[in-house]
Every structure is written in C-alpha cells, then in structure tokens.
Amino acid sequence: MKHLDEALNQTQVDQFGRASAALLSQGARNLPTDIKDRLHAARMKAISARKAEKVFAKKAVFAGNTGHLSSNSKGIWDTVGWAAPLVVLVFGLIGIAQWQNDSRITDIAEVDAALLTDDVPPDAYADSGFLAFLKNGPLSDAQDNTSEIHNNK
Known about the structure:
This protein is mainly alpha-helical. Helices cover 67% and strands 3% of the residues. Strands 1-2 form a two-stranded antiparallel ribbon. The longest helix has 42 residues, at 76-117. The chain is rod-shaped, with a radius of gyration of 46 Å. It starts with a helix and ends with a helix. The mean pLDDT is 76.
C-alpha cells in the first residue's frame, strides 16, 4: 500500500509505459486477424485525437526604457511605423495644394500686370486666345518679320 501513496517520477512513468506496451504487443501477436485490425484502427484513432505537443519558439528580447528585459513589441517604433507615412502624405498633399495655389496666383498676377502696363484695348481681354497671347509674350515674331521686310526693301 505504501507504493500507491507515493507519487511516481517521470522515469518510473516511462518505464511502466514501456513495460505495458511490451506486454500488450506480446499479447496482440496471439489475437485473431479481425481483432488485430480493429485494435489497429482504434490505435490510429487515438493517436490522431491526442493533444499536440507544445513547441517552444525563440523570441527576441530587448531591454526596455527602464532597463528591464522586455519582449513586448508595442514600443514607440510600432506607433511611428504607421504614423510617419501618414504624416508625410498629409504634408505632401498640403505642399502640392500650396504650390498649385501659388502657380494660380502667379498666372493671375501676370494677367493683371499685362492689363495695367499694356496698351491693349479692354475688348482684347474678353478674347479666349488673349491668355495665350500674354503667355507667348509681345509680338516678337511679328516684329522680326517686319524688320526683315524693311531690310529687304
């Protein structure tokens, strides 16, 4: 009775399991074929239903801000990792909008300057091709052609 009250250690449990398996295997050799087949099917079912063994994986561990070892990856870099591209995108869009606004203001200023400094009649500004005229500058080609005509005479 004393042996039943004592807890078995892992080595003793392994020895008991091996001895039991040897006795069962020896007894199974003398069984009829149909019983062997049923036992084999039951064994396969039991093996497939057993619990999976725990697998231990290595994980990197770094020292945190306080000097303690920590494997928690929720640090500042995780937050910055998704926030930094978002901030860059927002500032990029603001920069593009500002650049387009400045370009539009510059174009309007050129038209206003041309309107105030040129001797063009106000009806010319209603013409749809007038902005193209202003962008191309004064009639430099026409003046060159006129000077060529005067030189040829």
